[in-house]
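Quick start: read one record
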Amino acid sequence: MKSFIALFLAVFLIFSFTPPIYALDSSTSNSTLPIVHGEGAYLIDVLSGQTLFMKNPDELLAPASTTKIMTGLLAIERGNLQDIVTASSTMLNNKLVYGTMIYLEPGEKMPLQDLLYGTLLKNSANDAAVAIAEYIGGDIPHFVEMMNQRAHEIGADQTHFSNPSGLTEKEHVTTAHDLALIARVAYQNPVFAQYVRTKSTTISRSKENVPKLLVNENKLLWRDSSVDGIKTGYTAAAQNCLVASVTKDGRQLIGVILKSPGREIYTDMENLFDYGFTQYKSEVYKPAGTAISSITVNNQSVDLILDRPLYITQKQGEPQQTLDLKVSVLGASVLTSVEEGQEVAQVEVLEGNKHLDTFPLKASRTVQPETPKLTLSSFYKPWYIALIVIGSLIIVLFNRNRNSSRYWRRRTRLSKQRKSSYLQDK
């Protein structure tokens, strides 16, 4: 009896165990899911913004140098890449600047574009990231505020940055989900995309015996021609971190793996990509030019149209899902005129309660402002009253002058008559 109970408990424990992997479809067999050794993971389809795989997506983890995705994005969005940046004395502060470096010295000048290569390539130079932060933000604390504000704008609300480089700090955390959102927005910037797909480049420096050849540390970029970025990271606390992008057959996927114990992180990422391409497909949900809604301008209907296609990603062999589209008009709710192609609204794309993307909506045609009509009520307007008053004054003055002229003509005639009578009497 005891052995039977022991066997029953063993079987129960085996089948009641749930691994910390979350699939989008509960009917999917775990045997089809990729094995990821990292603590957190996320796979996202860039065109649709939809999630294909996740593991502990909201667990707070250290991002290490994947932090520099945000640092690089802000450098591109807020700076001029041709500007010359002068390294400050902060380069000597070994509490803020240590680890991987390109060995900047105080007073050394370098174009922002080269500092950005140093930040995103060459095993991600921490001194280059600090130099960028001080140049763009004025100082590191203000730049960190900018990082957190931009993360909030993107929707990465669980992320909190404490420095621009990714060095370990207690409050410097993100999640696999947030990092995927940040990477997706960053990669949609073509300048950022060009940087992170660069395998190697050489920068000019006046000093000797300092790094000039900068090499991308992302092993997948060298191993697979379809991989096109984006950033590696490592600290003792964060362990191995990788954010990678792959583009194939018209689709782009971005994967995130955080806190992976070893070099298997690259194999795990390849497995994630293979899963995304073989198990899911993307197709156009609403083509460019589709009227999503309409507005009324001067009693005329104007369609609100997409200027680029809206995509949907779904499991292979399953019927097409539906997405919720929430339209909101920009600015004034009542328009008096509109130009064809003018952006007048936006549509939020939702998968259930989950925000996927926001698309601009443009007017399908031009409607001119209505010509004012003169009505009885118009006379009550102040400027009409002023015209009436001025007109009345003119009439009064005219009549006054007219009466005055009659008076003097009459008086002249009477004077002449009196003079004539006087001469006759003589």
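The chain has two domains: 30-280, 287-363.
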